[in-house]
Amino acid sequence: MSSPSLTPLSDFLGPQRRADMLRQATFFGAATAVLGVALLIGLVSWLAAELGGNGMSLVEWLLALPGSVLLAGLICLVPWLVRRNLRRRATSRLALAGTRLVVEDSYDRQEVDLATALCRVKLAGGNRSNRWPVLEVRRDEEDLMPVVVDLADLDTRVMRSPEDLLALAAALDRSDRKESWDAAGRLRTLATWKSLPMIYGADPDAIPITPAGAETARPTPVRSGEPSPEISLPARPPVPPARRAAVDVLLVLVAVAVVLASLTVASATQATAAFGDVSRTGVARATSCQRHGPVSGSGFGYWYDCTAEVTWSGGERSTVSTGQSVLTSADIGHDVQVRELTGTRRNGTKIVRADDPPRRWGAFVFFPLFLIGLGFLLRPAVDLFRLGRRLRARPQ
Description:
Blueprint: E1 7-8, H1 15-53, H2 58-90, E2 93-97, E3 100-104, E4 109-113, E5 118-124, E6 132-138, E7 147-150, H3 162-173, H4 178-190, H5 241-269, E8 277-292, E9 295-296, E10 299-300, E11 303-312, E12 317-322, E13 335-342, E14 349-353, H6 361-375, H7 378-393
Antiparallel strand pairs: 1-2, 2-3, 3-4, 5-6, 6-7, 8-11, 8-13, 9-10, 11-12, 13-14
């Protein structure tokens, strides 16, 4: 006996929106390719110039090259992910025959039997104000890559047709698993939704279960501020302010630790002077030094700021200040060969030891680590902004 033919389910995107999404995917794909090629050519050319004419050693170059390729890849990752998501959604096709569901997109064609699979209807999305219903199908309990079917379009707020949702529910009712029966009940509830609401902080299983044969779907309670009561969901209890404040404090501490670690790398390798040019050389003799630590603007550890008298190769003399332990208390009264680098700071010059030149690989560690540290401050900054806005809104 031949299996029943597949019946395509309706398209909730619509032909115009599907075409628009494919055009956007093409644009982001082209942007990814152009951006990646441009970044790689620029970074490799710059590294080649550094290796050829500016004193970068082969070891430093080999250390910097993977970092440059990784940086280019991370920058290109964002448009590539946007392109992949657009193309997956725009080319997704669903067909149903009995309990056999076929999900096909531009990357793969998957077929599952809803009568034997583990099925769940839940709210997907991690953002508290941006959740949408999906059908998640696992072939067995060990399946780590479930088939996920969107039941609504998050951008246009359009739901799949009630006929399609009820057809899926009927297929799930033929299963002998309780999870599939619950999923079928939630599909019957979704069939009554007129459009996708702005769902706030709901639990993944918040969609009510409507029993088979019920005349009307179980109502979903209205949440304050929701204009569409028939499609509102109850909210999860908000996070206690004390807990959120504790997390923010922890993130600030982590951010400070990461930033200080990056400054330690910069101080140890003198990364901020790594790309300067030697303008002159001389002999320095430290006259006084002051030690800072164990935590300072140079990072973790103890670092010396010194004042020294320098006799330059041209015969002129000057008094200079050094930081980051370029000179230490052990150098007081002793002659140390130094170099003056230009184009390294706002004041244009920096003094470094001749026997301990800056390591350029330190810059490739310092800058990403510093930016990661600042990234930990995003959530505390947003929470602080929201708190200030609420305080300003209070009546005087």
